[in-house]
Model the fold of this input.
Amino acid sequence: MAMMTSGCGSSESSSVTESRTEGTTTVSVTTTVTTTTTPAETFGTTQHPAKEASEYGKVIALTFDDGPNTTCTPLVLDLLEKYNARASFFVIGDNITEESAQVMKRAYGMGCEINSHSRTHSDMKKMTAEEIKAEMSYTSELVEKYIGEPPRFFRPPYIAVNQTMFDSIDLPFINGKGCNDWEEKVTAQQRIDKVLEVAEDGDIILLHDQPSNYQTVEALETIIPELQKQGYELVTLTELFYAKGITPVSDSTPKIYSNCMQEGNW
Ligand SMILES: [Zn+2]
Done:
C-alpha cells in the first residue's frame, strides 16, 4: 500500500498588507507568509496516504463494528490488504486485549482508522452523562495507548442516541448503510446484493467484524473488488470527509451520518 511520503504537499503563499500610521506618515508593510500543508498533516498522522482532496473521485468508507478480535478482524484485514483498500474499525473497549490490540495495530499500520463503539456496547440512552463519558474515555485511552492516537469518530451501540449523548460525546456520530450482517440468517450473497444496491458516492457502509462473522468476510471478497470496479476508492472516514471538503459535526447538534454529504440530521 502506498504510504505517505513527504514532499507531496501543497504550498500556499498569501500576502498580507498592513497599513500603519507612524507620526504623520502612512507606511505600507507587505509581509508574505508561506505555509506548507501536507495532506498527512491534515489527517494528523503519517499513516494515511498523502493526497489532495481534488485527487479523489468517488469514495466510500467501509466500517466494521464490534471488534477487535483475533479471528474475524485479521481476515477482514487480509482482504483490505489484498485489494489495497482502507477501512474504519469501531472497536468496543472491553474487546481490547493484549492479543486483539496487535490486530488493531496491524489495521492502523495499513492506513485503517480505529474509532470508538463505546466500552461495554450497552444502550447509552439509559446512561447519565458521567457514565457516557466514562464509556468514551476508557475506550479512547486504550486506543491511544496502542496506536498512538485516540478515536476520531463514534458509532453508538444499536444506533441508540439521545441529546445527553450528543452533549457528552465530542466526536462526530456515525451511522451507515447496513445489510443486517450481524444476523446469521442473512447469507453472504444477500449481504453482497444489499451493499451493492445501496452504495453511492460519499457513503458509509456499516458492517461487522465480530468474532465468527465469516459470511461478511465471504461477502467482502465480492463487495470490495466490485465497488472498485465501479470506480469507488475505499477510504477511511477521515479521508471520506476530507475528500468531499466537509468538516463533520462534533458538537451538541443531533446529527449522525450515513453519507458524509447528507443534509439534515439523519
Ligand atoms: Zn455494535
